[in-house]
Each structure stands twice: as C-alpha cells, then as structure tokens.
Amino acid sequence: MRTYKTLETSLVHAGTPHPRIEGAVSSPIFCSVNYESKGEASYHELGYLRLSRSPNHLELHQKLCTIEKGEAALVTASGMAAISTALMSQLRPGDHILVQEGLYGGTYTFLTEDLNKWGVRCSFVDGNRPETWKAQRQDNTKLFYLEAVGNPLTRVSALAEAVEFCKQEKLLSIIDSTFVSPVNFQPLEFGFDLVVHSATKYLNGHSDVLAGALVGSAASIEKALHLQVHLGATLDPHACFLLNRGLKTLALRVRQQNASALALARALEAHPGVDRVYYPGLESHPDHSRARKLFKGFGGVLSFETNRNLEALTAGLSLAIVAPSLGGVETLVCCPAQTSHLGMTPAQRQEIGIADNLLRVSVGIEDKDELIEDFLEAISRA
C-alpha cells in the first residue's frame, strides 16, 4: 500500500490501483454483479457484488482508510445504513448503550424505536457534563455513541473526556463525524474506536450520491460487513465511483465552507432579525473554546433563530436553496422542525432546544459576500 504525506494528496491518489487499469487515469466503473472464482478460501472473498468487493469498492475503502487513519472501511447505501450497521453489528438483545443528547432526528428515532424493539436500551446523557456519565452506566452497557458536532444546534460534546471515559469503562466509542469531515477532525487518531459518516454530505459534496461509510479496526469492520451482507445495504459501483471522485476535492471544498460559514454566522449575529446564531466558530457559542482545541475548522453548518416570518424569509432567498441535507457545493437552508426532526414530537424537540423558528444553513462554495448579501436582504424583507 502506497503512503502519502498529506491529506490533500491522499484524497487524490489513495486507493488508486497500481498499475492503473488499462492505464486509465480515472478508474472505470465495474458494473458486473459477479466475478470469476479464483479458489477463494472464505465466503467474504467471493466475487459477488453484495459483498462490497468490486474494484470500485476496494479503491474507495482504501482511500477512506487512508484519510481517516483506520485499518478497514466499509461503504453503505446511505448514512443511516452506516449508523444502523455500526450499532447493530456491535450489539445484541439485552445490551445497553449511552447516547449523547441532541442527535440527528433519524438516529434518535432509530435508537428509541427500532433498537428498542430489538431489546437494546439506551440512556441519553449530556455530552457537556462528563461528571454525570458514570451514573448512567449499567453492567450491560456496551458502547457510547456521539456526534462530533450535534445536528442542528452545532453543540460540541466533551469528546476528549468521552474517549477517556470509554477506555476506563471498557466501552466501545462510536462517533458520527459527518458535520466536520476528515479535513477538520480525524476521530480514530483522536482515540475513538469507530467513525461513521453520511457520505451523502461532505465526503461526496455534490448532492448526487446517497451513501454512508464506516472506518475503524479490521475486527469491527468485519462485523459490520457480515451484517451488511445479510441486510443488503450495499453501495452500487457507480455510486462508489462518484463518491471517490467527490472525495478528491474534499479539502478544497471544506476549507472554503469553513471560512464562508464563519463569515455568514458573524453577519447573521449582527442582524436585528436574528435572535440567536449557533455556530462553534463564534466566540458566543458555548462550546467555542472546546471546538478550537479539537477541530482544524468549524465546518459549514450553522443554525439561527429568527424573529421574522420563516416562509417569507426562505422565499426571499435567491442563492440558497430550500432543501434538506447538507455538505454540497450549493448552499441549502431548511427548518429542522419540518425536516430532519419532523419525526420527533413538539415536546421532544422543545426538550433538546429545537425551536420552530430555527433555520439550519449548509453553506456551499459560492462567493461568501454574495451569499451574505442574499441572507441579509431576505431577512430584512421578511
């Protein structure tokens, strides 16, 4: 395996087969469902697409291992497939897990409804109060699940303390690092056991691929693959090709999004039509000092509460697109109460601080001054 000195070079070259296939600079898409047998010793070495072993999968897995500094990787059909596979492959009925409060709505409902049906119980803990975690730990607690940056309030939990706590308590640590990407934070190098991504977001970056990714130890990924093979959440080779292509520009995109999001957050904070801005790059954010220590950049997602009419405000935007998801080259805006957290009851949303007048913004790569003007004008007219 070839090694590279920097993340930027790894994003372009890691995983590329040597010699190149027929000399192709960009690896071709392998649409074959099956491959000739070569006396494979185990089922998971067979040449069958559901086993995630096409040349496109292998190249992508190697790139993900390199940029996240893991032993093995696995791509899945969506971000939720990555999250559910990561959790289910490590748990069994009767287990208990600790979970950071304020999760993405889809993860929350999976934990509280689906895993609960299968006999796994979870306790939600305040990610900013490590002193309270021990009391929630049970004899059957197996892991601690966190997000690098919470969705949509951008809270940053005590991640260093979480790693230490899991080591002391012999718990597996799993972190969703979608919001920050490997450009801003590399959880495995920091001490986490398993990192998951909705690769639909920053890793791909172009709003045209649905995918997920897990990276960690060879043993943990082997368990995940075993489950994924049976659930069938395999990513198709064309999506692998597109995700691999998107990764090549990840560093360029994310660094511009970091800078633009910070500039927009500061401009919004000064506008009278905005009551509060949530962005860890702001000095007013409760976790700003922690984020400065942990991350190389603060990411491209911010949220703000407005005292203006939401429909009028979003209708007045000309650059930002009103749509769910995040991490693409275009700026997106949505109301979490009507999208990502719609599956929660109003009381549940209120409990974790998600107001009905909250808007989440995923900053793209447009010119930052033009983008700021678009938002400020729309808020002023609303």
Largest beta sheet: what is the strand line-up?
A: 1-7-6-5-4-2-3
**Beta-strand segment tally:** 12
User: At the fourth CATH level, what is the homologous superfamily of the largest domain?
Assistant: Type I PLP-dependent aspartate aminotransferase-like (Major domain)
Shape: globular
What's the SSE pattern? Answer: HHEHEHEHEHEHHEEHHHEHEHEEHEH
Give the domain tally: 2
Helix-residue proportion? 25-40%
Named at the architecture level, the CATH assignment of the largest domain is 3-Layer(aba) Sandwich
Euclidean distance between termini CA atoms = 56 Å
- What's the CATH first level of the largest domain? Alpha Beta
Q: Could you name the CATH topology of the largest domain?
A: Aspartate Aminotransferase, domain 2
Radius of gyration (CA) equals 21 Å
Uncertain segments are none
- How much of the sequence lies in strands comes to 5-15%
Largest sheet: 7 strands, mixed
Total number of helices? 15
Mean pLDDT: 95
Helix/sheet category:
alpha/beta
